[in-house]
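Write out this protein's structure.
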Amino acid sequence: MYYDKLIFELSTDGRKGYSLPKTDVKRHDVPDHLKRPDCPGLPEVSELDVVRHYTNVSFKNFGIEKGFYPLGSCTMKYNPKINQDMANLPEFASLHPYQPLDTVQGMLHVYHETQRMLSEISGLDTFSLNPFAGAHGEHVGLMIMKAYHRSRGDEKRTKVIVPDSAHGTNPASATVTGLESVEVKSNVDGTVNLTDLKKVLDDECAGIMLTNPNTLGIFEKDILEIAKLVHEAGGLLYYDGANLNPLLGFARPGDMGFDIMHINLHKTFSTPHGGGGPGSGPVGVTKTLKPFLPKPVVKKTNEGYTLDGETDLSIGQVSHFVGNIGVALKAYAYLLTIGKDSITDIARFSTLNANYVKESLKDVYHLPIEGICKHEFVFDGLKDKSTGVTTLDVAKRLLDFDMHPPTVYFPLVFKESIMVEPPENESKQTIDKFIDVMRIIANEAKEDPDKVKGAPYTTVVKRLDEALAARKPLVKYKDLLDE
């Protein structure tokens, strides 16, 4: 079809999508060593061709505004339009990062107030909005942990404890920071095994990285004991903020004993980051660790707002300027809209939706952990294993019903994991439709398993060789031609 073609395939020699008047600027010769040897090879298309092409391409994409996307706190929470409008205001969007500080006081006010609200929500003393993503925040937090121990002359603390149910970014961040990750076993519900934890707590322990609730959606009931054990061993507690959503307004990491944490503004506070960006992973710390924060930090003075952070203990600059202004603005608007009195609704409804789905489907999907979860839970594939239908098959079949699959094959503690986390803003009607579709697929698996194994049928492309796509991705037009 015409609209299945690439923009390069729609190109016609000599066709243009613009008409410009003759310039009165004098010609300037460009030195030969700065010139391209050949033309850049851009497509030659009309404006109408471009509009039609990319409009039709957008119809093939899937996003939170098209259908149900059960990855709420993790990735794809709906971003209310007012938040986007605020971020698009020319008074913010047109600012230049090198403007004098007295001309960007409004922007600095937003940063400072966002820092203050995050401190109140988390129970930590202060925040830096400089990190650009959650994994970046992890790296910055561990840099602070490392700098803290070094400042005390404790050079041998190079080990970071990570549960076996943790997010994969945790051990990766430790490695990038020059630290060694030490795995501890989890209980059957994914919580930390205290016996195994005590075995690795020694004078080489820099700290522990925890997600609470954990990846299985279960709250760490022993968190105060864990904090006590780690602190007594001389280590620090790092809170991975990926699962903060169900705690908002009810519990604060700082009150649990955590010393450092990152918060995903692009997850918890409504800026979906599908496609790889944009993101923001502010890092918060206790008062003791405040001098180690990356610079600059936005501060309020009698004369207004300024940038500070020139301390001897600071880990230095980790990003350009003071972070991602667009994401900070959306989070700021979101928090002001929700308000202090209603922030608990986020936790309530995300927890309610998850438990409702879990209880509604546990007769046809295997539920390895019984009891109340928080914002997410994990099935271990279909309850009837005799069908041969895998978690991947279920995920592919969901696409035929215009629903994005949940996270699959993670966490790694179960062979056929299906991690479901319905956002708090989804209606009961939408949740019920998802439940109905999941039951339809379970029934198909029994009556016609080959139908599920052959899915999807209605998508632009059918089932891909995912291993090959990951190892040898074709992302350029030239790569496709070479194939």
